[in-house]
């Protein structure tokens, strides 16, 4: 498992997280996004052993002591047959890091869904990824089957100690390499594709105030 705070070379590849836009107040939350805060995440220890559950609100709202609950999450990177990378711009309605660019899907396996608590072969996380890709991007389940994801590694990271919301996750990094059908859910994101080569060489990907803000999940 990679710990971001201890791997300097890895951190050099991580761009700016959009802290300033993550400071929201409860009464301004989008109704659909606020309802999702009652879904229950799988809480874990630093070895990624499941130890309980907590709502998304409890997991992502910074406590009075400045701490955040460690929980299980995943990030999916999708490349098509040409090698183009699928990016999404998070909806302005998102609670954490709205309007930020990131990889195809970042979400959580849910405690209340028994299939997503399956530990063997990261099967629960794979099933959660299949569910969220359909919800967020309209990708048919048969185009993102659990076995089609290549599990790369896990990352332990924390971000967002400024403001009301943040992240503290054991994040499963998964790759899906195939052409997919897209029908984005506009309450979640807007999707676009860019070539890997143009992305890595683009001046727009250099951190600049108010320009191209990306999440820490985006490597």
TrEMBL record:
Q: Which GO terms describe its molecular function?
A: isopentenyl-diphosphate delta-isomerase activity; metal ion binding
**UniProt keyword terms in alphabetical order:** Cholesterol biosynthesis, Cholesterol metabolism, Isomerase, Isoprene biosynthesis, Lipid biosynthesis, Lipid metabolism, Magnesium, Metal-binding, Steroid biosynthesis, Steroid metabolism, Sterol biosynthesis, Sterol metabolism
Please give an example of a GO cellular component term from this record.
cytoplasm
Q: What is its EC number?
A: 5.3.3.2
Q: Which GO terms describe its biological process?
A: cholesterol biosynthetic process; dimethylallyl diphosphate biosynthetic process; isopentenyl diphosphate biosynthetic process
Q: Does the keyword Lipid biosynthesis apply?
A: yes
Catalytic activity, reaction form = isopentenyl diphosphate = dimethylallyl diphosphate
- What job does this protein perform? Catalyzes the 1,3-allylic rearrangement of the homoallylic substrate isopentenyl (IPP) to its highly electrophilic allylic isomer, dimethylallyl diphosphate (DMAPP).
Concerning its family, UniProt says: Belongs to the IPP isomerase type 1 family.
Question: Entry's NCBIfam families?
Answer: IPP_isom_1
Task: State what protein this is by name.
Answer: isopentenyl-diphosphate Delta-isomerase
Source organism: Timema douglasi
